[in-house]
Amino acid sequence: MKDFTSVDSILDFAIDNEQQAVDFYTQLAGNSENQEMKNVFTQFAKEEMGHKARLTKIKNEGTFEMKNQDVLDLKMSDYLVDIEPRPNMTYEEALILAMKREKSAFKLYTKLADKAPTADLRILFQSLAQEESKHKLRFELEYDDYVLREN
Question: CA nearest 101: which of 25, 50, 38?
């Protein structure tokens, strides 16, 4: 894991990570032939843009609030094979890819929280990890509704 020399470097890293998520979901939406998939991934790209904006505001203003809540983890992604992004993925493949990406983001922010030099940064990264776990749960529920119930 990268060593950070300042709060700004940590926030820059997190902002870049959120931009990568925006790009990822935008690309998935663009590659989707199914309009429902396009809509789902476009919505997630917008949410990641919101995370990026939140982090940018925190960096510029130096303050933030955290709403702590428990998020259910269905652990579906733990039992699914890895999927590589490619054009014309099935809806099931896209959901699996998204679940695994959100799980990775959760782990990243959890590790950053563990290494945070201050309590405020620890809380910030715990908050971001919580947001990513919410995304993962939404993909798991979508997978349960549209893949598992149809089989």
Answer: 25
Backbone angles phi, psi at 26, to 5 degrees: -65, -40
- Token pair, residue 147, equals 């893949």
What CA–CA distance (Å, rounded) separates 32 from 90?
A: 8
Give the chain's radius of gyration (CA, Å).
Answer: 16
pTM value is: 0.74
One digit per residue, pLDDT tens: the chain, 151 residues?
566 667 788 788 889 988 998 998 898 888 777 787 788 789 889 988 998 998 899 889 877 665 666 665 656 666 566 777 776 777 788 888 888 888 888 888 888 888 877 787 788 788 888 888 888 888 888 888 877 666 5
> DSSP H helical segments within 1-151, as ranges?
7-31, 35-61, 91-115, 119-143
CA–CA gap between residue 148 and residue 130 (Å, rounded) = 25
In whole angstroms, give the CA distance from residue 81 to residue 79. Answer: 7
Which residues, including other chains, have CB under 8 Å from residue 28's CB and lie 6 or more apart? Answer: 37, 41, 85, 89, 94, 97, 98
